[in-house]
Design a protein that fits this description.
This protein is mainly α and about 80 residues long. It has one domain. The chain contains three helices and two strands; from the N terminus they run αααββ. It has a two-stranded antiparallel sheet. A hairpin with a 5-residue loop joins β1 and β2.
């Protein structure tokens, strides 16, 4: 794959979605190692925060649920599913 041209890199750096995804993947959250438990939790909380910022409060019910020793589950329902 060829490297991006400077203009393309600058445009990508201003893309909010790309910035969010880059921020998320910097968290070492794919791990079964106990020393990464805080990272796994941080990634789940990061995702919940982004869901709650969805316009119109569509995912206002998003939350992190504990499912085991280290596992985290992020859940959210759309308003139509909450009826």
């Amino acid at each position: 794959m060829a490297p991006l041209a400077p203009a393309a890199l600058a445009a990508a750096a201003e893309d909010p979605l790309l910035r969010d995804v880059t921020e998320l993947v910097r968290i070492p959250s794919v791990s079964a190692l106990p020393e990464h438990a805080k990272d796994v939790r941080a990634a789940a909380e990061w995702f919940v925060a982004r869901l709650k910022r969805t316009p119109g409060g569509v995912f206002a019910s998003a939350r992190v649920e504990e499912t085991g020793a280290q596992e985290r589950l992020t859940t959210a329902q759309t308003p139509s599913a909450e009826r």
